[in-house]
Amino acid sequence: MKIATIGTGFIVDTFLAAVQEREGVTCEAVYSRRKETAQPLADKYQVGKIYTDVADVYEDEAIDVIYVASPNSLHYQYMLDAIKHGKHVICEKPFTSNEKEAAQIIELAKENQVMLFEAITTIHLPNYQWMKNNLEQLGQIKFVQCNYSQFSSRYNKLLSGETPNVFNLKFSGGALADINIYNLHFVLNMFGKPDSVNYTANKHENGIDTSGVVVMKYPEFIAECVGSKDADGLNFVVIQGEKGYLHVVGGANGCREVVLHINGQEKSVNMQLNDNLLYYELGEFQAIYESKDYQQCYELLEHTRSVMNVFETARMSADIIYEADHK
């Protein structure tokens, strides 16, 4: 699987580190509008080609898959162009700005018979899969709480009058998109779509959400997802059932340790030996790609679309409107 990257942020660095650890996966090229921003990554990971014109990435016949890690609002166009050129795509979360864009991209991928993946670490982690397989031990689920709070250095820039991409409606930013999306993936992949969704947010004067809580109602339980970029907090997930509860230490993003509490007894589980969380998702994508398992690819895309539906419903309930919503 020969990959090219779009973007030069820290997540691309982490992704390329995962590529180095996966046999049968290589990075052929990195793209950035300015060569000087791509050069450090190319040097660090011995990537042979740097492109400053994205059209060259699409035309490069040596590239099978394009990894998109641009600002959120640009995901749609990069995926659209890549798919039209017959390239498979791995796109960072959040997949798109809204469900309409997601539906269009998914349909285009199917029409062009290319594979398309959302790079969301959580649902591909071994500890997460263990939880899904052992959830029945908790009995009837009654309550789910998720908190992923991480103070952003860019928040101070926002307060000083700047508008970083992550706090910009034009770039489809905000706490829900950047951080709480992990919680949404955690809950929806485990329990399916809820009956109702509501988002109560702390908003900056420019209209972006800096923190907030999504409440999702299911027939038998309530799920609460907190995400904050304006304050640190205790990151965790707790799934409470009539027979016991699961505690995810450190939260939904990493699922780095799971503690099962049943009848006053604890069982600690950690099946993740690699600290690079992207290692696991890349392995899943590689296996699907190499086996040409389009059915599994499309099942993952249905989950992605469900998340985008809930994500957009939550945003709208808090009156958070992106520029992409007007297109």
UniProtKB/TrEMBL annotation:
One term of GO molecular function: nucleotide binding
Record Gene3D superfamilies: Dihydrodipicolinate Reductase, domain 2 (3.30.360.10), NAD(P)-binding Rossmann-like Domain (3.40.50.720)
Domain Gfo/Idh/MocA-like oxidoreductase N-terminal: 2-117
Chain ranges of the GFO/IDH/MocA-like oxidoreductase domain: 137-246
Pfam families per the UniProt record, alphabetical: GFO_IDH_MocA (PF01408), GFO_IDH_MocA_C3 (PF22725)
PANTHER family the UniProt entry points to: PTHR43054, SCYLLO-INOSITOL 2-DEHYDROGENASE (NADP(+)) IOLU
Protein name as catalogued: Gfo/Idh/MocA family oxidoreductase
Organism: Natronobacillus azotifigens
